[in-house]
Amino acid sequence: MADDPTLRFYAENAAVYAEHVMTPTGARLNAFLALVPAGGKILELGCGNGRDAAHMLSLGFDVDATDGTPELAAEAERRIGRPVRILRFEHLDANATYDGVWACASLLHAPASSLVDILGRIHRALRPGGVFTASFKAGNGEGHDSLGRYFNYPSAERLLADYASAGWRDVAIETQMGSGYDAKPTEWLWVTARRMF
Fold first, then answer.
1. What DSSP character marks residue 112?
2. What is the 8-class DSSP label of residue 165?
3. Which DSSP state fits 37?
4. Using 50, 70 and 90 to split pLDDT, how confident is the model at 54?
5. pLDDT at 1 over 70
6. Whole-angstrom distance, CA of residue 96 vs CA of residue 42
7. What is the pTM for the complete model shown?
8. How much of the chain is in helix, strand and coil states, percent to nearest 5?
């Protein structure tokens, strides 16, 4: 995430944003965890306030919680009681390290032009058989919301093409109506993919 207004929004609103939603993501997170071996190593990209990391840790998973905003990472650290790494998506350089990668409402801020590279980095970071779940706000091209935050706003077709270009072969997309921090009706695209080899 290299968009300065987006980074500034999360830096300036970290404490308020961290109180926005306190409960774990729920059914989507549980479905992801069901595909990860018990006690498996999970990379969380964009952990926000740490709500999902806390849930995964409570279930015995080995969680590497990361966020691109130091102020949000500090909020997450207070919740989970352990360090949260500052990591920008484009700096991920792990190789066959994780059993799962969880990216709930985070990769939607990745520049559209960089998404294929980032998806490739995530593919390399997973062990063979590893699972990756991410959520995006659906749309027809990148832009900023009313709060000044950048979103890549992909269509399902665009996501499938980007995942394929990054080397993913086993990809499923589901849509779900919901909302977000801005409280506006939102069509979410939930993508689950597995590294086959």
1. G
2. H
3. P
4. very high
5. no
6. 12
7. 0.94
8. 35, 25, 40
Query: In this structure, which amino acid lies at residue 2?
Result: A
The residue among 89, 79, 17 whose CA lies nearest residue 51 is: 79
Distance CA 96, CA 129 (A): 10
Q: What is the pLDDT of residues 82-113, one digit of tens each?
A: 999 999 999 999 999 999 999 999 999 999 99
Q: Which pair of tokens denotes residue 5?
A: 């207004």
Closest by Cα among 59, 166, 76, 67 to 109: 67
Report how far residue 128's alpha carbon sits from residue 98's, in angstroms, rounded to the nearest whole number.
Answer: 9
Given the structure tokens 């130091």, which residue do they identify? Answer: 70
* CB atoms inside a 10 Å sphere around CB 187: 13
Give yes or no for a contact between 171 and 148, defined as CB atoms under 8 angstroms apart: no
Question: Rounded CA gap, 153 and 22, in Å?
Answer: 25
Q: Are strands 186-194 and 143-144 parallel, antiparallel or unpaired?
A: unpaired
Contact partners, residue 70, CB within 8 Å, separation at least 6: 11, 86
Q: Which of 28, 70, 69, 78 is nearest to 50 (CA)?
A: 78
